Amino acid sequence: xxxxxxxxxxxxxxxxxxxxxxxxxxxxxxxxxxxxxxxxxxxxxxxxxxxxxxxxxxxxxxxxxxxxxxxxxxxxxxxxxxxxxxxxxxxxxxxxxxxxxxxxxxxxxxxxxxxxxxxxxxxxxxxxxxxxxxxxxxxxxxxxxxxxxxxxxxxxxxxxxxxxxxxxxxxxxxxxxxxxxxxxxxxxxxxxxxxxxxxxxxxxxxxxxxxxxxxxxxxxxxxxxxxxx
Length: 229
Description:
Elements: E1 3-7, H1 18-26, E2 30-32, H2 45-56, E3 64-69, H3 76-79, E4 87-91, H4 102-108, E5 119-120, E6 125-127, H5 130-136, H6 143-151, E7 156-157, H7 159-162, E8 174-180, H8 188-199, E9 202-206, H9 212-215, H10 217-227
Helix pairs in contact: 1-10, 5-6
């Protein structure tokens, strides 16, 4: 049996993992789903990593698999060594480059679909409208589930995008990248190429939009279970 630490992305919360969490628990595994301090303007990746570390520090079962969705990919490598993790799993995730901000990466690489936008509130926070959330995050989800998810989104600090990543070096453990082929936020071609070239990650294509944990929970759970073997 294993412990899976499920880390949400921007604007979300641990609720987005509920379908995957119940499947992992049914298979006998331990699950930790931290809440990141998205609504705190000063909270960057170090604060996010602290939230993950605090939540997972009492995990009982090994191996420990860190799973990051979207911007959660900026957080999980920061705690891998501290938690003695055995595997990093990225689900349609951003990948930090040491010495750079994520905004710099966006300017240099074709990471984000040009059609995707969010609203800068002008006070250090941002939000995504319900209509845009459904269009970009949940377009392949059940319509009722998509509306429920869009209504649960939170304000999001911009600090993780504007700060230089605190990651110095990547942890020397196994890495798997779940490339969501119908993603409307992070460009699928980037997902298929960058993680392997940059990290030597194993690429697992998945016929899903950006939020595979909501639209394809069975398939995503099956992928996660294979990383714990």
